[in-house]
Predict the 3D structure of the following.
Amino acid sequence: ITQHIGAYQVHHAEKLITFLDTPGHEAFTAMRARGAQVTDIVVVVVAADDGVKPQTREAIDHAKAADVPILVAVNKIDKEGAQPERVRTEMVGLGLQPEEWGGDTMFVDVSAKARTNLDDLLESIVLLAEVEELKANPTAEASGAVVEAKLDPGRGAVVTILVQRGTLKVGDAVVAGAHWGRVRAMNDYKGEKVKRARPGEPVEILGFDSVPEAGEYVHVVVNDRRARQLAGEKANRLKTESLGRRSGKKNSLESIFDRARGAALVPDLNLVLKADVSGSLEAFEDEIAKLPQDEVTVNVLHTGVGGIAESDIMLAAASDAVVLGFNVRPVGDARQVADREGVEIRTYAVIYRAIDELRDAMEGLLAPEEVEETVGTVEIRTTFRASKVGVIAGSYVTDGKITRGAKCRLVRDGTVVYTGEVASLRRFNEDVREVNTGFECGIVLKDFMDVKDGDVIEVYETRQVERTLA
């Protein structure tokens, strides 16, 4: 079992492939939550004798949420009881259709122990990289991501960096979030000293003033002074954000509901679902699937049986999701992580209560409908000109009322010839605010003089009405 992130490189067909070996999904999620897209391709390794495990499902959910192409390596095909076809069938259920079955996911059967088909796996990775057109500029200012970092008693902060762009050199001033330093020494994945690192190369560097977090974005700056300044600014910003998080959740069902009122509409609602037993989870998902999703989509990023773990919170933080639990509670430090990351956890004992709240949140995301109501109808009986105002329509209010500044349409022989507003409204040479049914008045329309006897003015108003799901 992998206990930490390792980064190493393999040569294949004159190409260099860098592998990041992650401990399950947690580091991958934490990196993504901090905005670092460190992987170009995800290789999901599934044992041919065990099949799909809960952690496999979780790893795939994280890879999909990060929008990274997935390649499946079916391992241990040399073992007794190995069933690579069963693995493929199970993976289809997770949305990964093998190419040989008409899908677009590459599957490679391998045995790491017997070294069977490992070249085929490397060839598939190279091929997928070519299809995805993965390229980087080696001449730009160097930047990348922190893969892992630790404090060594003898050497100080030891930081493993994956260079993603440009060329990192010894002596460069670097910044990673609220941490800065100058590259004093650089070792490759074999531990050998190197002077420079090009895109895609993992290196261990010395020289940071403190230990940055995994997944932090690293970039080269012009000098130490600038590095120190940027790190200080980031530290202050993190402090402010931390205070802000304490005062309110970043993403909750209420905030989603309120977002519509602020017109910052989002088209979808991301969820992480946890339940006590798989039957409850299926019922939960079935009820969500029944919600009308023509205009607002509910994305279930991950489902799982058992308590709400830290990895669930980190996935929710990375994807602006809400965590919903059915008969489960946060375990370990999940509650503290949720408070720190601003993720809302909602727990329920009755599925229908969860569905009702979800429906409310979805309705909050719908754009309000604009409804038009006719306020009054006015008949033009005569017209006369005035030197300062132009054409005045001598009119009679046949229904409702007319108000100065109201929206209106001019209808002639059944055709709308003008849409605008009432600029002026008079009775007996006096300006008035409104005229009701059965009264005569003089009307001037805004920027329109071509009024004729027999025309009809329709006065209307519009209002926005909150919509409900069908």
Remarks:
- Confidence is low (pLDDT under 50) at residues 32-36.
- Residues 175 and 227 are 6 Å apart (CA to CA).
- The longest helix spans residues 224-247.
